[in-house]
Structure formats: structure tokens, C-alpha cells
Amino acid sequence: MSELTLLILRLAFLAVLWLFVFAVVYALRSDLFGQRVRRQGADLTSPFAGAAIAVAAPSAAAPSIAEVPTEAVSVPRATGAAVAKRLVITSGPKEGLEIELPSEQLAIGRSSESGLVIRDDYTSTHHARLLLWKDGWVVQDLDSTNGTFLDGTRVTLPTLVPLNTPVTIGTTTFELRR
User: DSSP letters of 80-92?
Assistant: First the structure.
């Protein structure tokens, strides 16, 4: 082989090696810090930013955005006695743990900044959040890789969580209770 051919092969190998290193660093950065979540809509102060709220029915799947016009959605106001006050983990590594729900929202994910930290391979850094909305708790998936499930149905829209209904994130299942 000529000297020029060897030089080109060496440079090509070096370029492929650096591309591999950059791909590994990007994957680690995304896993550790998460990806930026873009908010849609004009009202950025709203926790839902223009999204429709779906009312969960135990036997029905959550409707898509196209099926639910925002102005037609009504979430029944819960009475003071029916509002969940605590979160109980029913299965997973932290089974039996009870958390007093905060006054407004609870972040859930692998991040140490989350109110409920779930450390497993199926939970994203910023996976989901629970929000108090009209005297009821709503679960919102934050574009997680493996999804958030309410009573076995994947949550695509912010969805009202009824009392004693299982919510699954990764390998952990929890319920909201009084």
C-alpha cells in the first residue's frame, strides 16, 4: 500500500473513533440531565400550557387530543373529603412507602430534585408529575421514554387520577389515598 492510502485509512479510523466518543458522551448527557421539554401554547404560566385535561374512566382508554376539544372538557370538582392527601407505593422497590402529598405538585423521576425519586432502568430523569387541579390530582407524563400508565392505560394527556387507582411508572406502582 502506498503512504497516501495508509494516511487516509488512519484519518478515517480516527474520525470514526471520535464520532463514537461524541455519541457516547451525548447519550450519557441525555441520560443524566434529561432532554429539554418544549412547552406549547401561549400561556406558559399554566402547568398544562394549552393541553386538554382528560377525565380517566377505569374501563375506557384516554381520548386523543383531536377527540377532546379544550373548551368541552370538564373535570368534576371533588369535595374536600375526596381529595387525596397521600401517595402510597403498592409495588416496586419502595413498596409500602407513604408520602404526604404537597400543596400543588409532585415531580416524579430519577432526578434527585424530584419529590418522589424512583431509581430504576425504566424511569426517566424527569418522568411525570402530579398536579393539584380543581381539587383533584392530575398526572402528566413529561415525554418519558417508557410512559406513565393509569390503571393499565398509557397517559398521553394530563389525566385526572381517581382515588385508589394504580399509577405505574417504571417498575413502581402507586395509588392516591385520603
Answer: GGGS--EEEEEES
